[in-house]
Amino acid sequence: MQKFLGALLICTAIIPLQAQQVLSPDKNISLTFAILENGVPSYKVSYKQKDVIKSSALGLETKDVPSFLVGFSVKDVKQSSVDNTWSPIYGEQKSIRNQYNELVVTLEQKALKGRFIKIHFRVFNDGVGFRYEFPKQDELKYFIIKEEKTEFNLAGDHKIFWIPGDYDTNEYAYTTSKISEIPSLMAQATIPVHAQSPIASPSVQTPSMMKSADGLYINIHEAALINYPAMALNVDAVNYKMSAHLCPDGVGNKGYMQTDAVTPWRTVIVSDKAADILTSKTILNLNEPTAYEDVSWIKPVKYVGVWWEYFVTGKSTWAYSNENNVRIGQDFSLLKPSGHHGATTENVKKYIDFASSNGFDAVLVEGWNVGWEDWFGNWKEEVFDFVTPYPDFDAKGLQQYAAAKGVKIIMHHETSGSATNYERRLDKAFQFMADHGYNAAKTGYVGKIIPRGEHHDSQWMVNHYIHVAKTAAAYKIMINSHEAVRPTGLCRTYPNWFAQESARGTEFEAMGGLAPEHTTILPFTRMMGGPMDYTPGIFQTDLSAYGRGDRVKTTLVKQLAYYVTMYSPLQMAADLPENYNRFPDAFQFIKDVAIDWDETYILEAEPGDYITTARKAKGKEAWFVGGVTDENSRTANINFSFLPATKKYVATVYADAKDASWNLKPQAYTVTKLIVTNKSILKQFVAPGGGVAISVKEATTDEIKKLKKL
Amino acid sequence: MQKFLGALLICTAIIPLQAQQVLSPDKNISLTFAILENGVPSYKVSYKQKDVIKSSALGLETKDVPSFLVGFSVKDVKQSSVDNTWSPIYGEQKSIRNQYNELVVTLEQKALKGRFIKIHFRVFNDGVGFRYEFPKQDELKYFIIKEEKTEFNLAGDHKIFWIPGDYDTNEYAYTTSKISEIPSLMAQATIPVHAQSPIASPSVQTPSMMKSADGLYINIHEAALINYPAMALNVDAVNYKMSAHLCPDGVGNKGYMQTDAVTPWRTVIVSDKAADILTSKTILNLNEPTAYEDVSWIKPVKYVGVWWEYFVTGKSTWAYSNENNVRIGQDFSLLKPSGHHGATTENVKKYIDFASSNGFDAVLVEGWNVGWEDWFGNWKEEVFDFVTPYPDFDAKGLQQYAAAKGVKIIMHHETSGSATNYERRLDKAFQFMADHGYNAAKTGYVGKIIPRGEHHDSQWMVNHYIHVAKTAAAYKIMINSHEAVRPTGLCRTYPNWFAQESARGTEFEAMGGLAPEHTTILPFTRMMGGPMDYTPGIFQTDLSAYGRGDRVKTTLVKQLAYYVTMYSPLQMAADLPENYNRFPDAFQFIKDVAIDWDETYILEAEPGDYITTARKAKGKEAWFVGGVTDENSRTANINFSFLPATKKYVATVYADAKDASWNLKPQAYTVTKLIVTNKSILKQFVAPGGGVAISVKEATTDEIKKLKKL
């Protein structure tokens, strides 16, 4: 590497602008920009002298103007340094340091009347971000992108945690393999998912998590995906080279650009410690500060919902009747009720009572509005109107009932993928919410997208989600989107878009299952982009209780651990109230656990194997620890050094019993109180598919006397 | 024919339901339905024993369910007769008789669990309409149409007045040829038009006007185009067979259907008199009565506008500045004004003054709102926001100025084809209009459609236009759509959608020109579907007055005649005020002419050659006559027998001077007053490219004394 840099320096003596190097503030990461033969821009990245991204081309292929691929020369370079700190509205830590060295290269294509672009590189201690900028200029106003040609030329046949590249879904199970194995594993990895559009050539979704043979953890994703299609990665499994693959629209175009324009940031997070990947704030730092003046109404939410019963009990349904050919606008009270409708006034009241008794903020109600009888699979545009309750759902009465008990109802806006219909009705839908006291909506995009030909990940839909978030903000409504494009840190800019699904979540425990390792991978992949509404908290994991053959592949305690390991400002207790009532001691953890944090500590982590995380509650002297493992039991190493030095604390440890496991005794657990200090280290057994959850608070004198010291 | 029917009767003795005949009330038209070999449904139509449509297949090809093409047998038939009369809100006559014999055939496909459809045939005295119905049934809920396979098997190589089949535009010049000549003439007929998508195989748009060698006038179109793509006609030029060609969406599908569903009516208007084609009300009769309870706010409008100056003077522009890379949301007051902006407060006041002085209802203002700097050609989604005036347009002040003078301003909503952007902003746009006292909007769809992949004529856009009309109705706003799908009589159901362009209108006189025959064809083609905003009234036809090389290819008088020959409840006086001020005697006709009618009389007509029309003003003892010719001079035969018998009338005759012609002396005209009665016949010279216009009112005793009698 030093040799290469030497050569580069000689080179720059002749064409001084054509190659540029920028180091991270801690000097561990080096990014080098260079113009290759034919005027192709390129970059490479190393970490502690190890290649992360080998020389890789940059550029875009266009349709209607000459491409941004060759013939470039450097017109100008600027380097600068930034070091500041900002406070997120909610998050894993109360303040975030934004420290990087920046290189902005202005590149001109002299043969094209000096047409120019800029590439911005930001080098943080834990990774790099770069983006293309197309400044306003006489010779460049509008253009259509055929493909972005950004390459990520990896240094070896890394281990990779991946799901298939797809224009419409991220709801695949993860495959762990070598890069070289991806093509041969693609068919089996491409399991059936509704409305899927797998990319024809071998490719993977981002965030793409890799581990090199020499111990580097590398994560490739993007930040600030605005007015641009989402990026998957083409996989050249022979040369270990990845390259951008943008999601097309219905006519095959990939982006409609007007100068001044920028692409999203392409991010490469790298470290020799897996924990650094999880604590990286580079993606958030690359997003713009919030676009809203008033954010006082944006609050984290812990909730229950009329939801899991639809998946497991077989007794309740979203739909009101068994009819399967309905239209909004018809009188649904004339339909014969099936007797199985879940979102009845009575049932919702039960959940409101439960939420109120147990300190939850809100109750999600799915199936409240007309149209569920034939909502899916017909590429139908006007499935829902978002304002008409079923005859047995008393919107006004429930509003009053919930308000009297200090509980909010969370609106559900399933679009069935029909974004045009939703946009057309958006203001009326949000006005209905405002009129009825709702302040958060779960949106859904299950199905093929309308406008037909667009995809969940295409530029038009990317703009749609943001349009929904911004419109919601005008009504002070928070949005939790399901089946939308994977997040890219936009919760910083549009903080009311506070959670997303965009991955295989808990619902799949009842629709084919999730591997025990799944949740040791998600924080390294999907969750790099932003909070996930994973909907944890399933206590009745053996679904044979409902007469089903399958089971949730975790212990009960692992479900508790998720509230800490899977960060989100929106956390559900997804199981049925009656199941929580059967395990009040374990349920206490869900009631206690914070959903907003001052500090986060990744105590140990290895993608695909385990994660143990500790967090300090926002503004409180309370800490919570969560640890999860894959299908293998292990001993978690929980070092309490994150606690303040002077005091003694009570740790309430929710642990798998010795004989527990996800498939045999998932509900075998212990709850133990111990006195700990910041010198304590807990070696904690974790069962196969199990976890550990700990709440920590200052000990009383009485507790210090009575409780065992760790 | 009798022989055939005899054979049919024998046939029906064996399979009695498999063939059915229905006659028009006057028995001139016969429609026969029959099941052909393989269970293919078919129909044929004759007029006074002459074949109009020879045996032609019916059916639809589908994608996801078995097609509706073969294997049909007749399950049930119903015949009935209807004869009633209704009053349109506005129109060519105060009451319309709806008289037809109906045949409804229920067809089942026994091999498909008895799946069934219905075909409705209505036989009027002047033509037939038929449509497919897909009733609700267990085995048929949703389906996607690949193509409608309705055939129109013509009896000969008719003369046809046609424009190329196209998914996005009707703004072609007409070609007159034999059917057999269509393929060889297609290339030259497909002249450049913005955002055109000519159909690859030989095809023509509807309304398609034909004349047979044996003297039949035949018009094929459709009625009540709702939730379905528009139909063009494939042309088999060897067998003179036409067949439906529906407009596809971005993924190639042609229609998304949910039972109970109907297609639009397919219409065949036929007569041995050309005038009967023009007076046919079959298309209106096939549309549903108005969907609105209150229609009191829907009124015909005669207007002027800041419009023609954009096309001819070279001095004013829609755009405020010469910048050509702007975005809504930016501060347009920071742009450098070009000094040529047309929609300035001052200029609009000039038009308001003119409108007020001359009895016009309204002033159209184009170019009032930000975004025109780069509005076209970039497939850009957010071109306009419809609520932000340019800095030099005082929306509030002009509202007050116009209101004080009893004049309305007509809003302009150019969408640039970006229907998604318009829908998203529709309520705010109409609210802005309501807040500022506007009650009519001219909408525009110049450009490639967004949702990208959709077309002006595809099902999604068909629904869009209706969505706009219905939403506008909620704000009591009338809509005049330009570049939308061609009309199909929906002005009956949605009467606030009171005019459309959807053809090559006056603007093309300044963009390549219109042949003198153009307006002798339009009433037989485009205008069969509904009123056209043709924007007549150009007095300064020689555009060299503006330093241009081209000219409007009519005499001045022909422009007057258009107010009668081209029916619309929305009529513009399109020329500049100063041109009207130069010809006050001729302008008097435009000021006088009615725009709503009790009765209409087609005095003589031949498509491509001439039309002479008389109409009685709505609720008034006032008549207006308009006559137009093509490039040939002629003598119009104006029989005043439409006048009441007992009285004497003054006819003010606006006539081409003897030496007038469109290309030499277009402004040479005479204005003569004559006494006429219902026995009078005027043989009136009409110049090449010329016309005649007459206003008729009861004569005073003084006038009877002084004026010459015809």
Automatic annotation (TrEMBL), chains A, B:
Keywords: Calcium, Hydrolase, Signal. Residues 22-289 form the Glycosyl-hydrolase 97 N-terminal domain. One of its GO terms (molecular function) is hydrolase activity. Its cofactor is Ca(2+). It comes from the Bacteria. Residues 315-503 form the Glycosyl-hydrolase 97 catalytic domain. The keyword Signal applies. Gene3D superfamilies: 2.70.98.10, Aldolase class I. Residues 596-696 form the Glycosyl-hydrolase 97 C-terminal oligomerisation domain. InterPro entries: Aldolase_TIM, GH, GH-type_carb-bd, GH97_C, GH97_catalytic, GH97_N, Glycosyl_hydrolase_97. Residues 1-19 form the signal peptide. The keyword Ribonucleoprotein does not apply. Monomer. This is Glycoside hydrolase family 97 protein. It comes from Pseudochryseolinea flava.
